[in-house]
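Example record used in the benchmark description.
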Amino acid sequence: MAHRRTTKLLFLLCSLCYALSAIAGKSYYDVLQVPRGASDDQIKRAYRKLALKYHPDKNPGNEEANKRFADISNAYEVLSDSEKRNIYDRYGEDGLKQHAASGGGRGGGMNMQDIFSQFFGGGQMEEEERIAKGDDVIVELDASLEDLYLGGSVKVWREKNILKPAPGKRRCNCRNEVYHKQIGPGMFQQMTEQVCEQCPNVKYEREGYFVTVDIEKGMQDGQEVVFYEDGEPIIDGEAGDLKFRIRTAPHDRFRREGNDLHATITITLVQALVGFEKTIKHLDDRLVDIGTKGITKPKEVRKFKGEGMPLHFSTKKGDLYVQFEVLFPTSLTEDQKTQIKAVLG
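Model output (C-alpha cells):
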C-alpha cells in the first residue's frame, strides 16, 4: 500500500514538473517545429533541415546558432526514440532524467556530431535529396517593435488543405521501367513502360488551427520563421513549408532603420535656448534621459549609443537617434519683442 502511494506521488511530481517545464521554455516539438503528433519521417526531415541551417560549420563564431544546433540535436535524440518520446510525452524532461537515473533506456545517448553523421555521413554538409514537394506558403507577418526588441510570440489562424482517406483505389508510386524486346535474330529494342502501384485513395479537406510564431530579438525585415512541412500538401510527396516573413509594424514613438531607432521630440523655444530635462519611454518601459543643458537647434539630431534595437543572435545593440523639433510662438507682443531684443540683441 505504501509502495502504491509512493508511486502515485512520484507520478504527480513528474506531471507537475512537466507542466512547469512546458511553461518555462519550448518543448522538443517546438524546437523541431513539428506538431506533437508528427510522424517519424516528419521528425527526421525537420531535423535534417534545421541541422543544416544551424550547423557550426555554417555559423562560425555564432554562439546562438551553436546553442540552437545543440537544442535541435537533443530534441531529435529524444523524439526519434519511441521509448524516450513516450516518457517525454507523459512526464516531460524530468521524467527522462528519472528514467536515465534508474538505468532505463540506452546508456550514454549520442552526441551532436554522431546524430548529424547518421544523416550526412561523417559530418559532410550534403544538401537534402530532391523529392516531390508541395507549394510553400509565405505569409507577411507584422511584428510589433516591442516583440522585436524583447522577443515574443504571435498567434496566427491558419487554414490549409489536409489529405484525408477517400473511398476507392488510385494509381501511385509510378515509375518508368526499361526492358528489351527482341524484334529479330540478334536484334533487340529498348522499351519503356510505366508501372504503378495501387494505393488507398485520398481527398483534400480544409482545416483551420492556430500557429504560434516565435519572434526573436533583433529579427530584421525579410527574415523568415519556417514551419517545415506545414505548407500545401501534395499526394505522394512532401508538403511544402509555411514561412512567416517578418515585417516591422508601424510604431507611435519610434521608427526602425536596420538596428537603429529614430524618434522625433518637440520642445519649446525656451527649452531649445536654455536647456531642458526630458525622458523618452523605451520599448521595455525604461525611461531614457534625453535632456540637455545646452542649446538645441531646430532639426538637431542627437545619438544615444546602445539604445537602439538588439542585433539578432548578439548581445550588441544599435543606436537611438532623436531629432528635436522646436515649437516657435505664433506671435509676439511689442513688449515681448523689446525684451527679446534686450536679451539677445
